[in-house]
Amino acid sequence: MTPALGVLAAGILASPLRDPWLGILMAGALSALAGCAVLRGQVRWPWPATAAFAIAVFGLLQGVFRSTVYAWPTFAAAVTWAGLAAAALLLDWGDFQSARRWLFRFATLTGALALVQFFTSGGRIYWFLATEVDAVLGPFANRNHFASFALLAIPLSIPELRLRRWDAWLGVGLLGAGILAGGSRAGALLLGAEAGALAWLLLPRWRVGWSALAVSGILLTAAGTGLSSRLLEAGSYTDRLSIWASSLELVQARPAAGHGLGTFETVYPAYLRFDNGLTVDHAHSDWLEWAVEGGTLMVLPLAMLAMWTLRRVIHHPWGLGAVAVFLHATVDYPLHKPEIAALQFAVLGLVAAAERSRMESCRSRFTAPAVSEYRIRSGGWSGKPVWTRLSSSFRSLSALARE
Q1: pLDDT tens across 192-226, in order?
Q2: Does a structural domain hold residue 274?
Q3: Residue 129 belongs to what H/E stretch?
């Protein structure tokens, strides 16, 4: 698990390089680690890994049978999805609590770096990589991508917040401040929702009132920053709605299997409704882009995965950030960035491990006494012929049933 966490951290910190091979390299490293773990028999196949691997196979089939409009990005996307499956597979094995704490501490350090850079770097990532924006947040030049990263990480601190750990509160404050400073509109709204959820979970009494107060505080703080002016930018809404309308036409053209993974930038110009001279490389909605590229066959397992996540976070609220990112993906494209998608599936792997641990604990709680009595009455199982063990076991179970 530790090498996988190292690969995730390196992929996030190296994301400003914008090299198309970077995502493939990270996916390859994760897949190699997962392959070694599978050969040693140390892993299981949780649903997040199964869904991502199925999409990877689907992309390979699109390329092999030439149902994609451009084979190279489809094969590259298939490799990326295999890496996401590997991330979920690796994080599902091992001590999920230690991995959860490690991820939150890494996010805290990244949040501190983001705030320092935002006010001092002049739009240069790590103070030397020039970008086209005026302000950057750590390794992220896009405010919405940092918002998804922070939204995914903040709920990971819930167990430590319940213990009133000051470092957990510091991490939450740094990540929340980064979202507000960056000016992500959807990020600020989801941050308010997460703040309300944290207040509901952590405060013993007057939960509704404190939750409303937390949400109001986040929104008022956002209104006092540059975010209020961004909420009134009508042009950005118009452009995004036009992109979504064109994307829906693309979905209608090939609704079942899509145009091919990774081909949105290739097929979009044939359906564009306006041309402002800029390249539209994403649909500004991961769900719409998945429908364009993979059709129903791709969207269906991802929708099932989102529902699976929603059900599991009822018992494991520290995984709430994964739900927030799925929601953020309706109006932006964080999950088309390999480093954020890998972190998302890593958290889903941790949720799967926590759920399996909970189920095993429930089974042992209800069955351990009966099994112990059953073994005592049967006189033990070892050292006896199979027929003797089966007959004594049947007699012991009959005795227990009569009682």
Answers
A1: 888 888 878 877 655 555 555 655 565 556 555 55
A2: no
A3: strand 129-130
The number of folded domains in the chain is 1
Q: Which two tokens stand for residue 402?
A: 């009569």
pLDDT score at 310: 93
> In this structure, is residue 179 part of a structural domain?
yes
* Residue 295 exposure: Cα atoms within 13 Å on the Cβ side: 15
Res 372: pLDDT:
47
**Burial 386-398, CB ≥16 within 10 A → b, else e:** eeebeebbeebee
Residue 151: the pLDDT is: 95
Q: Which helix (H) or strand (E) holds 15?
A: none
pLDDT at site 39: 81
> Residue 323 falls within a domain, yes or no?
no
CA of 327: how far to CAs of 47, 320, 322, in Å? 19, 11, 9
* Region for residue 282 given its phi and psi (left: phi exceeds 0; alpha: psi -120 to 50; beta: otherwise): beta
Residues listed for the chain: 403
Q: Is the pLDDT of residue 93 over 90?
A: no
125: which strand partners? 129
Give pTM, 2 decimals.
Answer: 0.85
- For the segment 318-342, what is each residue's pLDDT rounded down to a tens digit? 999 999 999 999 999 999 999 999 9
Q: Is residue 202 part of a domain?
A: yes
Helical ranges in 154-258 per DSSP H: 158-162, 166-182, 185-202, 207-224, 227-231, 234-253
* Single-letter code of the amino acid located at 160: E
Q: How many CB atoms lie within 10 A of CB 204?
A: 6
Q: How far apart are CA 389 and CA 387, in angstroms?
A: 5
Range of the domain at 127: 103-232
Whole-angstrom CA distances from 199 to 92, 160, 186, 322 are 28, 14, 20, 18
